[in-house]
Amino acid sequence: MTIERTLVLIKPDAVKRGLVGEILARYERKALRIVAMEQREVDASMADKHYHEHLDRDFYPALRSFVTSGPLVALVLEGDDAVSAVRLLNGATDGRRAEPGSIRGDWALSNRENLVHGSDSPEAAAREVGLWFPGLG
Ligand code: IDP
User: Which BP terms does GO give this entry (predicted)?
Assistant: First the structure.
């Protein structure tokens, strides 16, 4: 058993569409534990820090506009293999191709506005949890 923590963002499209409760329910029913959670307004500097590996990508300016377009919900989830468990629940990046039954597969139809973020490795999770919730040990 490998208990991990991972950083999840419920992105502004999900907040605007009123999907926060349904998305949280998926994580909770999977027996992931909510360690911390907060609704935030993100500025460009925070977006750049979070997505630092994408700063040079052609899609990044539009992605930054999107994640700063309204409130999002940031949370830390904990559980056995939480990093990969969350990514399976989230589904493939492109909502048009994401598996039915996943969050993106059921509710997203976009490559950019895809409702959720989940850390992609334990190393990324440690960095992102520290960035969003510096008070967490
Ligand atoms: P992930 O969120 O599934 O880990 P990443 O490749 O890390 O996917 O991309 C980060 C975010 O950037 C995606 O969730 C999505 O919002 C956006 N994104 C990724 N690829 C594209 C693209 O080709 N066009 C527009 N937005 C994209």
Answer: CTP biosynthetic process; GTP biosynthetic process; UTP biosynthetic process
Ligand 1 pocket: which residues have CB below 6 Å?
54, 59, 63, 93, 111-112, 114, 117, 120
Asked whether the beta carbons of 22 and 89 are under 8 A apart, the reply is no
Statement: the pTM of the whole predicted model exceeds 0.95:
yes
Q: In the chain, how long is the greatest CA-to-CA distance?
A: 39
Residue whose Cα lies nearest atom 14 of ligand 1: it is 93
Q: What pLDDT, on the 0 to 100 scale, is given for residue 137?
A: 67
Domain that holds residue 124: 3-136
CATH number where 126 lies: 3.30.70.141
Over the chain (137 residues), the average pLDDT of each successive run of 10 is: 97 98 98 98 98 98 98 98 98 98 98 98 98 91
75-111 in b/e form (b: 16+ CB < 10 A) is bbbebeebbbbbbebbbbeebeebeeebbbbbbbeee
How many folded domains does the chain comprise? Answer: 1
Q: What angle do CA 51, 54, 59 make, to 5 degrees?
A: 110
